[in-house]
Write a structure and sequence with these properties.
alpha+beta; 5 helices; about 35% helix; about 20% strand
Length: about 130
């Protein structure tokens, strides 16, 4: 099979959050958009973390004793999220998905978020490259 880059299959239009986004606003957005997580970027578009359903659930458990789930995304996000370059090949990304059990990875160029690649995107690439489909 020929080499295919992440940039050929990544999603470019993403829902993102800022560190200052209120938690309830982020949760409502995730529920409305039916997404299980989203990248967190600074004002310059640099990836600084990821916010996931698991981050929310962990926070709910911690804060449930206090009766309040207020705050901002920066308080609960996972910092230093694993990411890949747009030039990464699909096979390398597949290895990350299998080894690290990830569902999706942010795609960055010079530290700035440019997209996201998911396991489904990789499967689409494999389908497109299969004999008789191209």
């Amino acid at each position: 099979m020929k080499s295919v880059k992440v940039s050929d299959y990544m999603t470019r239009k993403l829902i993102t959050f800022r560190p200052s986004t209120p938690l309830f606003e982020a949760m409502n957005t995730m529920l409305e958009e039916r997404i299980s997580g989203a990248p967190v970027v600074d004002e310059g578009g640099h990836l600084i973390g990821v916010l996931s359903e698991i981050d929310f659930l962990e926070e709910v458990l911690k804060r449930s004793y206090h009766g309040s789930i207020e705050g901002t995304v920066s308080e609960v996000m996972t910092e230093g999220a694993q990411s890949v370059s747009a030039d990464t090949d699909i096979y390398s990304v597949s290895q990350i998905f299998v080894h690290d059990r990830r569902r999706r990875l942010p795609v960055v160029h010079e530290g700035r978020l440019v997209g996201q690649i998911s396991r489904r995107d990789v499967l689409k690439a494999v389908q497109d490259l299969a004999p008789g489909n191209g």
